[in-house]
Amino acid sequence: MYSTRWLLYTEQAPSAWLNFALCGLVGIITAYAFVWITQYYTDYKYEPVKTLALASSTGHGTNIIAGVALGLESTGLPVLVISVAIVSAYWLGQSSGLVDESGNPTGGLFGTAVATMGMLSTAAYVLTMDMFGPIADNAGGIVEMSQQPESVREITDLLDAVGNTTKATTKGFAIGSAALASFLLFSAYMDEVSSFARVPFEQVDIAVPEIFVGGLLGSMLIFLFSAWACSAVGRTAQEVVNEVRRQFIERPGIMYYKEKPDYSRCVAIVASASLKEMIKPGLLAIISPIVVGFIFRILGNITDQPLLGAKVVASMLMFATVAGILMALFLNTAGGAWDNAKKYIETGALGGKGSDCHKAAITGDTDEYDDEIV
């Protein structure tokens, strides 16, 4: 509050600093809301994950169906929170009293920017939580490989379950902050186009067929990108599994701790694939707007629509952002929920480790690679 008063006070609008302080508070509250929502959907203390674990008791298929349903449902609350945050921050900025030379309010976008920075102010804490997940996961692996007592493994399993929740929470936080920032970037894009073309560019009319098609292409881009990313992860997983099987066959002593596995080979496969397999999805995201803009610019010149290319790209970016936010929320939450449903069963619920319910939950946890795509 005091820093906002010191940095943002202006005689033109003496109370504007208070509005912007409230915008920052909106961002902080949004960050907390995302943490709570993600925890609710991924922590096995709450009903959604318990319901997912119960679905595993009737087989692998019902586990997958329940996980997909949970992921789809989990998009609702975050979108409502983002919507309230954007509208609130924009309204607080607009009502701050800042105006341009023509007397029009100018603080709306800046208010949204302050809300975004308010949300990002918790980034240090979020990064700490993000690091906890892999540390706890690898600690469990070390305990397993070093043949520690079962009591030690039970402790690391609990930590791993917490780590799954914190990983999902931090990714949800990143999605939320990106959603707030995307509104600013979209407005900045329109301002840049207007400045470069020296033609007013204040709205994107999706009732125009070409612009609507741009939106369809943007939405499709998210699903195509996700499909290619899933395929990339799947191919890499197959390579790793085949390598592990090869080592088990050639070195049977590994299973009895008499021979040491070649860990470096598996690490090399994953490291190489993480760079090579993502070239195609990366190029898709970079090249698609350029190609679409170029094609529709030519079409616009032919049909006497000077900014058609820029408007189609704007529609493409708008729809891609919306679809991307929803897809990311779905994949992130479903992955964490599947993992913790398995962990919940491993605590002794619904038959515990080795039961048919546990085997079905492992299938869901295997599908958790969609969480890594986010």
Automatic annotation (TrEMBL):
Pfam families, sorted: H_PPase
Catalytic activity, EC: 7.1.3.1
Molecular functions (GO terms): diphosphate hydrolysis-driven proton transmembrane transporter activity; inorganic diphosphate phosphatase activity
UniProtKB keywords: Ion transport, Magnesium, Membrane, Translocase, Transmembrane, Transmembrane helix, Transport
Lineage: Eukaryota, Viridiplantae, Streptophyta, Embryophyta, Tracheophyta
Membrane spanning stretches: 16-37, 64-92, 107-127, 173-191, 211-230, 282-300, 312-334
Source organism (scientific name): Carex littledalei
InterPro entries membership: PPase-energised_H-pump (IPR004131)
Protein known as: H(+)-exporting diphosphatase
Superkingdom of the organism of origin: Eukaryota
Bilayer topology term: Multi-pass membrane protein
